[in-house]
Amino acid sequence: MTGKVLVAYGTTNGSTAEIAEAVAAVLRKEGFTAEALPAGDVARVTPYDAVVAGGGIYAGRWQKDARRFLRRHGKDLARRPLWLFSSGPLDASAGERDIPPVPGLKRAMDRLDARGHITFGGRLQEGAKGAIARMILKNGKGGDFRDFARIEEWAREVAEELAAEKV
Ligand SMILES: Cc1cc2nc3c(=O)[nH]c(=O)nc-3n(C[C@H](O)[C@H](O)[C@H](O)COP(=O)(O)O)c2cc1C
C-alpha cells in the first residue's frame, strides 16, 4: 500500500492550501505516498494512482486554478479515483449540513466520475487579496471556519476507500 496520491489545490488566499496539506498528511499516515501541490504547478497527473483536488469558492465558482486543473487533466483524471473538496462558507454552515458542490463543479464531477465531494468551511483574514475581501473583513464577516478534525476524518475515509481498492 504505497500508492501515489496527489492532493492538488487552487487557492487565492492560502486556506485551501492548508486543508490540502492536512489531507496529504493523513494519507501519508495511512501508508500512502501523498503530496500536496498547487494545481497550477502540476504538469501531469499520470504519475499518480489517485487524485484529491480542492478549491476555494469565489462568487459561486471554484477557484480558477482548480477549475483549470480539472479541465486540463480531464482525460487522465477520469481514469483515476478522484475526490474533490471545496473551501467556502465564512460561517458555521459547513459543519451543520452537507453543502453541495457549486454547479460548475457538479458538472465536472459527473463528467469525471468523481467518487465524492465535501465542502469545508473557509477562512478569510486580514491581508486577503481584493476589494470585496477587504469589504467583507471591514464588515466583521471574516474568520476561520475550517474544522481540521472534520478534514482529517474525511481524509481517513478517502484513505479507507483507496486501501479497499488496493491503490
Ligand atoms: C471575494 C470573495 C468571494 C467569495 N465568495 C464565496 C462564495 O460564493 N461562496 C462561499 O461559500 N464562500 C465564498 N467566499 C469565501 C471563500 O471561499 C473562503 O474565504 C475560502 O476559504 C477561500 O479559499 P482560499 O483562501 O484558499 O483562497 C468568498 C470570499 C471572497 C474573498
Give the structure's gist in a few sentences:
The chain is of the alpha/beta class. The chain is built from seven helices and eight strands, in the order E-H-E-E-E-H-H-E-H-H-E-E-H-E-H.
**Radius of gyration, Cα only, in angstroms?**
15 Å
The name of the CATH superfamily reads: Flavodoxin domain
Distance between the termini: 7 Å
Give a list of the ligands: flavin mononucleotide
For this structure, what is the CATH class? Alpha Beta
- The third-level CATH topology is Rossmann fold
Order of helices and strands: EHEEEHHEHHEEHEH
Give the helix level as a range of percent: 40-55%
Tally of domains: 1
Largest sheet: 6 strands, mixed
Residue runs with pLDDT of under 50 for 5 or more positions = none
What amount of the residues lies in strands? 15-25%
- The coarse silhouette is globular
Q: What is the annotated CATH architecture?
A: 3-Layer(aba) Sandwich
Mean pLDDT across every amino acid position: 97
Helix tally?
7
SSE class: alpha/beta
Find the count of extended strands (DSSP E, 2+ residues): 8
